[in-house]
Amino acid sequence: MQKIVIFDMDGTLIDSKKDITISVNYVRKINHNLPPLGEEFIVDAINKEVRNLPKLFYNTEVYETADRELFEKHYKEQCIEHPYLYEGVKEMLEALHVNGVKLSVATNAPTQFALTMLKHLHVADMFDMIVGADKVKASKPNPDMIHKILNFYHYDKSKDKAWMVGDNSKDIKSANNAEIGAIFAAWGFSAHGTHSVIVKHPKEILDIVL
């Protein structure tokens, strides 16, 4: 029997809100001459289940190519300036890894940023797959990422166990849509959830999985 744990990245494994905020505000200033937004506003906007981020961030109805390109160019350098692993995350990952649990990442961020940040924080090697939104047709809550990862492991639901860990309702819904376990991480970007399994510290994941 395999045990597979798939993690969201931003707000679950790492706190990246400072650099995301800096890059969003850079685009606002350079392309739109708009004043800066606060970290809390940006994190709340990202975590909303239904939202129009271009409207909230840049006051445009759609995500303009110029804004996307400038954000990605800026964030490519910015993304490793301030991110950090949440307390207890590295120890939790190491414990799962030592116990033979298969680990992967499913993030709505572009794969290149996820790889860069996780390598910078010296945990990338513990993951078998790091899948960003650019690797699938539809991002979470669509289950495409989870299915891609499960297929890599030749997952058999009759004998294997799999969980998705995330700080967002989109993570939980993607797990439900893929018919695997869902664990809500309450230490990250979202402290409150109405989900059936909520953990307040990474070490609690060990009790569930091991």
Structure description:
By secondary structure, the protein is an alpha/beta fold. The chain folds into 2 domains: 3-15 and 84-209, HAD superfamily/HAD-like (Rossmann fold), CATH 3.40.50.1000; 17-78. It has 9 helices and 8 strands. The chain has helices spanning 17-32, 39-47, 53-58, 65-78, 89-98, 111-120, 144-152, 169-178, 203-209, and strands spanning 3-7, 14-15, 84-85, 102-106, 129-131, 161-166, 181-185, 198-199. The strands form 2 sheets. The protein has a 6-stranded parallel β-sheet with strand order 5-4-1-6-7-8, with helices on both faces. The radius of gyration is 17 Å and the shape is globular. The mean pLDDT is 95. InterPro entries: HAD-like_hydrolase_sf (IPR050155), HAD-like_sf (IPR036412), HAD-SF_hydro_IA (IPR006439), HAD_2 (IPR041492), HAD_sf (IPR023214), PGP-like_dom2 (IPR023198). Belongs to the HAD-like hydrolase superfamily. CbbY/CbbZ/Gph/YieH family. GO terms for molecular function: phosphoglycolate phosphatase activity. Its EC number is 3.1.3.18.
